[in-house]
Structure formats: C-alpha cells, structure tokens
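Task: sequence in, structure out. Protein: Iron complex transport system substrate-binding protein.
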Amino acid sequence: MTIFRSPVTRRRFLGVAAGTAATAALAACTNSANTGDDGNTGDAGATPFDFTDDRNERVQLPSTPGNIVMYAGSAAALWEYGIRPAALFGPQRLGDGTPDPQVGRVDLDSAVDLGNAFNEFDVPRYIKTQPDLLVSMVVNNQQGLWYVPEDSADEIMKQAPSAGIMMVQKNASAVIERYEQLAKALGADIEAPGITKARGDFEKATARLADVAKSKNGLRVLAVSGTAETPYLGNPLAHASLRYLHEAGVPIMNVGDQPETQTWAPDITWEQINKYPADVILHDVRTQSLTLDQLKEIDVFNQLPSVQAGALIPWRTENPYSYHSYAQIAGEVADGLERAKAGIA
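Result:
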C-alpha cells in the first residue's frame, strides 16, 4: 500500500495555543537539524521522504517530516541517529518517576507526553501537535500500531501518515537495521563517526557472545517471565531479544518446539517449572513481570539448581533497539554465560 500526501510544511507549535506551557514544549520538540556524531546532519524538510514500513505501507512526502510523534521504544531507537520526537506515547516513566528502560537515552523533558500506559493516548493533544508522521512498532503481523488504542485508532491515524517497525519474529539486529533505514530516510547520516563506532562495538560484542556461547557445550538456558500465579517461558524464535541471543548461539530452550508465531510456551504452573532443567535462567526485568526477589519468594523457583548457583542473567526484552543498547546486552549475557556451568540442573 502506498500513501501519498499533499505537501506538508514543517509545522511549528509556537502559533498553536500560544501562551500555554504545552505550546512551549511543543515548539521546542520539533525534529531539529543537528550535526555531529549522532548522524542528523540536515534540516528537516530539505528532501523528499520515501519509506516502506513493515506493514508494507509506503509513505511518500514531498519533504522530510518535521514533527514526528513516536512510541517511546521507537524514539529510543531513532534518538541514537539524532532524530528527535515532538511528542511521545507509551512507557516513558516508572512509578517512581524515573525513566523507563524502554526510552533509552531520550530526553523526556524535550517532548510532549501523550500518555504513559497502554490505551492511554491523549488524542486532542496529539491533534494539536499537527504531526507530520507517526512512528511505532508492529506485533503479530497486524496492521495496527503498538500502543495506538483501537477505540481511537481511526481518529489518530487520519491525522498523519504512519510507519511501523516489526518487533517480533525477527532478530533484534534486524529490528535495529530497520530503524537505521528509517533514520536514513529521515535525513540521518548513518555513517557518522558516532554511529559507525556504535555499530562496531555492537559487532564486536556479538562476536564475543557467539564465541562464549560456542564454548559452553551442553549448556541449557531458559527464559522466564511470570506473575505470582503463572510462569511464562519465552520462545527464542518469537521475541526479537531472545532471537538475537539464539542466533548468536545461546542455547535457549524452546519448550514444546513452538513456532515463531507463538510468543510463549503453553501455560504451566510454578510447580511444573522444574520439568525443564536449565543451567541458566534469563529472567524478565520488565515492570509487568515479577522482580528477581519476588521470583525467589516462590519456593519451587528458588530451589532450582540454576537459581541456587546464582546462574541468573537479566532478560532485557524491552531495552532500545540500538547498537549501543544491544552491545551492552551482549556483553552482559556473555559475562553471565562465562560464569555458568553446564549440567548443574
């Protein structure tokens, strides 16, 4: 599908609701022209925009979008290339007010907040931003965009063209590459010094991870999330974060041989988790999952040999899809695997 739009000017918010605090924030958050290592080297609007997203929808605009509204995770990925959001929606801050890990290095004070939680999207404020482009993620091959509420999607989607990047059923490195392609379409210099260094660091970290994984013959790794009632065992073919580790050679168990379209193994109880012996546990660190301390309060989990041995590695499934972020993840997992011993379970 190709979406064509009439000429779009670089909209500034200073003339919208002048005198309000929201307007001041909006005016400051347009996609500014930056130079330097982050890769953004030209004025927004200087060249045409042409991008086909992961829904196979093509957006063509006569000028580069200036006011870009982004899902928090998308903003974290594009921030590394100097692409700045005018407004954000989706997880930005934790309950204590600190930045959510999903937003990476995004300056939250520089963008308008349209909503922090699922199904929380301030449509009137979004319209007031006069967006040129909406960017979010796509899950399960659906046409809808992540964190865009279904009940207001029609009103939201008619305000501006949109771009969606698939975040499941592919390697995280492929997701990073897609964001890089989008950043390039938005005017970023993807060969800027800072970008090439981050890419090189990521490649070195991935190579080290692969070497460490290869050296650990017979190791068994289990990805675990859960609530107080139910454990969830991650499918390494479905989650981009796990697929990245899996394709680097980390032997993550696919319980029940699930296809890539199945995010989790069939439901089990905590009393059944010891049926899947693992030498290492990757534990989900998302806010909706139990913390490691809470998991250890579940006796059957705490008694697992891998837990008793301290063979526990954070599973950072929602950290930004960026070279910088995944270089850190690769290093952390490699460090954990180096300490692990096969056959303890």
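Residues 1-36 have pLDDT under 50 and may be disordered.
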